[in-house]
Structure formats: C-alpha cells, structure tokens
Amino acid sequence: MKLANTPTCRLCGIENETAKHLLTDCPALWKQRQERFDRLGLTLDDIKNGFPITKTVSFFMDNILKQL
After folding, report:
1. Could you give the 3-state DSSP secondary structure of residue 8?
2. Does residue 51 have a pLDDT over 80?
3. N or C: where does the chain have the smaller number of CB atoms within 10 Å of the terminal CB?
4. Closest Cα partner for 36 from 15, 68, 66?
5. Coil, helix or strand for 55?
6. Residue 63 in contact with residue 29, Cβ under 8 Å?
7. Residues near 19 by Cβ (< 8 Å), separated by ≥ 6?
8. Phi and psi of 8, rounded to 5°?
C-alpha cells in the first residue's frame, strides 16, 4: 500500500480515505462490496454496526489492497 500525500481517497477522490470510507462508502468499491457482502451473507448495516474482524480483514485484503 502506498502512502498518499493527501487524506483524499485514492480510489474515488471524493472523501477522506478512512477504513470506514473504504468499507462502507467509497463508490469505487461498490461492486466489490456488493459481491463480497452477498457471498458472506452480510448487509451494509451489518458492516456499519460491526461484525467479526476476520470478515472485515478478508474483505479488505481481497478487494481494497489490490486496488491501492
């Protein structure tokens, strides 16, 4: 993962790049979130309300790190 010079998300350029943004809000990751969450039987509310860290890490590693 490369360090950014600004806090702006490198994928969408809209909001600050935070874990919450990447996991729940980034429009550039919408498709990956939808596909992965469906496979895991999760909804966006599950993500926002907290779910097991292993599923969070799995999503992050499989989807987000590949794009950064």
Report:
1. strand
2. no
3. N
4. 66
5. helix
6. yes
7. 60
8. -70, 140
What pLDDT score was predicted for residue 65?
65
Residue that has been written with the tokens 């909001």 in this structure: 15
Token pair in block for residue 7: 């806090």
In contact, 36 and 63? CB cutoff 8 Å = yes
| 17 CB-near residues (< 8 Å, 6+ apart) | 4, 7, 8, 9, 10, 11
In angstroms, what CA-CA distances link 8 with 39, 46, 62? 29, 25, 22
Give the largest Cα separation in the chain, rounded.
36
Q: Which two tokens stand for residue 20?
A: 């919450």
Q: What span, in angstroms and rounded, lies between the C-alpha atoms of 32 and 29? A: 5
More confident residue, 24 or 51: 24
